[in-house]
Amino acid sequence: MLNKLHPTAKVSWPKIVLLLLGVVAPGLALAHGVDEGTQQFLTTNEGVAILPFMYIGAKHMVTGYDHLLFLVGVIFFLYRPKDVLLYVSFFTLGHSLTLLLGVYQDIQVNSFLIDAIIGLSIVYKGFDNLGGFQRFFGFQPDTRAAVLIFGLFHGFGLATKLQDFEFAQEGLLQNLIAFNVGVEIGQFLALLFIVVALSFWRRYASYLRFSVVTNVALMSAGFLLTFYQLSGYVLIGN
């Protein structure tokens, strides 16, 4: 149960949400970016490099705004730890499968279109949290199935960036598994921060009062990412 907001505590959550969106939005286009040092390592590495690939995977997830925004939407109305674990497990299963298969089997997918779908996944979750499907269409999609399916696309998003580099075939599978383990470590650290922040906010009545603002902000960020990626596809990607 939400505690009543203390009369002397004034928390301007709409301003905080808009500020966060303002900070995150410019970086959405670079959500899968690879810094120069990482690029150099990926293009010159030969053989098995477990720890470096784990580090790169963890860093990629922690700085992957699109993945994190989707996860915020997924767990926004999940109050029980076992529900958080269940839905995150579906997401993890999805993106792990396509990450490993996409790179190891060299499945080519247009990165602009995949990232546009990832943007739509954020829009979907914000819309779902607002009760949009029931209100406008009279039905509720299976949320677990949706999280799994979008997880598959998020995994392809990761795979397309790795495919930009020519990996040495020696130790490829081990390095991919290490990268995926790193992604899960980064996801766990990011989720820990998100869950703590949401748990703190849930102590106040403003959590539900401004839930609409928060999920509209999520949808806005998703539309922004989708528009940016589709523009890239039209101009340079097809």
Write a structural description:
With 238 residues, the chain is mainly alpha-helical. The chain has one domain (50-237). It has eleven helices and no strands. Helix 3 runs parallel beside helix 9 and helix 4 (65-75) crosses helix 9 (172-201). It is globular.
Main features:
mainly alpha, single chain, 238 residues, 75% helix, disordered N terminus
Précis, in short:
The chain is mostly helical.
Overall outline: globular
- How large a portion of the residues is in β-strands, by DSSP E? under 5%
Tell me the domain tally: 1
Number of helices: 11
> What gap, in angstroms, lies between the N and C termini?
51 Å
The helix content, as a percent range, equals over 70%
Sheet with most strands: none
Q: How large, in whole angstroms, is the Cα Rg? A: 19 Å
Low-pLDDT regions: 1-31
- Subunit organisation of the chains: single chain
Q: How are the secondary structure elements laid out?
A:
Blueprint: H1 13-28, H2 36-44, H3 50-62, H4 65-75, H5 81-104, H6 111-129, H7 132-137, H8 143-162, H9 172-201, H10 206-209, H11 211-237
Helix pairs in contact: 1-11, 3-9, 4-6, 4-9, 4-11, 5-8, 5-9, 6-8, 6-11
